[in-house]
Amino acid sequence: MTEPSTARPAALQDRSRRSQQDILQAGYALLEEGGVDALTVAAVAERAGMAVGSIYRRFGDKEGLLLAIQRAFTENLQAEITGRMSAERLRILRDPAVAIAEAVGAITDSFQAHEALLRVFLLLGTRHEAVRAEGSRVSLEGNRHFTEALRHTPVAHPNPEAALDFAYRLIYATIAHRITQGEFLESDRPLPWTELRSHLQTAVASYLLDAPSGH
């Protein structure tokens, strides 16, 4: 019996999605292992077990491949963070300090888990405009999610949204600095990720919940 014609497109779509995922996983691995110089169409094709021509047909060239890998990675990263940092989830945590700590931890843990790949894109973004633009897009989206997730928190500032914006900037800048520059650039005192996370949670909760002097 021949395969129903309606099943063929679905099967082709499934194979195409699997191939796309194989390509992305190959790109992630190459970037983590050797940075952007290791990412070539030929290397991705070999790692993914595909023909070089099929990579070119999908992405056009190395630039298109790089940006597709970055887009998929940043979208997955953002989904991972927002899964832990939804407004519904944080609202259940009735202690505002605990909710803030959970939001800070969600960002810190996800960035640490993908430290190697984030380092590639953060550093590349300093000289590659399209990579910087994609990084900025997802960072701004993360800022909006952070603000929305903690909107119910009793922020002790005249302008709560501005305070939440600054808190996000503080978290992002601190973690990005750690990823790109390492642990000891500005101090020789050890500060492992677990301690950095804890100090950030304390600092952000204190900043948001304690009324500023003079108000």
Please write out the topology.
Elements: H1 7-34, H2 41-48, H3 52-59, H4 62-84, H5 87-92, H6 96-113, H7 115-124, H8 129-149, H9 160-181, H10 193-209
- Average the pLDDT over all residues and give the rounded result: 92
Parts with pLDDT < 50 across at least 5 consecutive residues: none
Shape: elongated
Q: Which structural category fits the helices and strands? A: mainly alpha
Polypeptide structure, described:
It is a single chain. With 215 residues, this protein is mainly α. It is built from 10 helices and no strands. Helix 6 packs parallel to helix 9. It is elongated and about 65 Å long. The protein starts with 6 loop residues before the first helix and ends in a 6-residue tail after the last helix.
Concise synopsis of the structure shown:
With 215 residues, the protein is mainly alpha-helical. The protein contains ten helices and no strands.
Question: Which descriptors apply to this entry?
Answer:
10 helices, mainly alpha, 215 residues
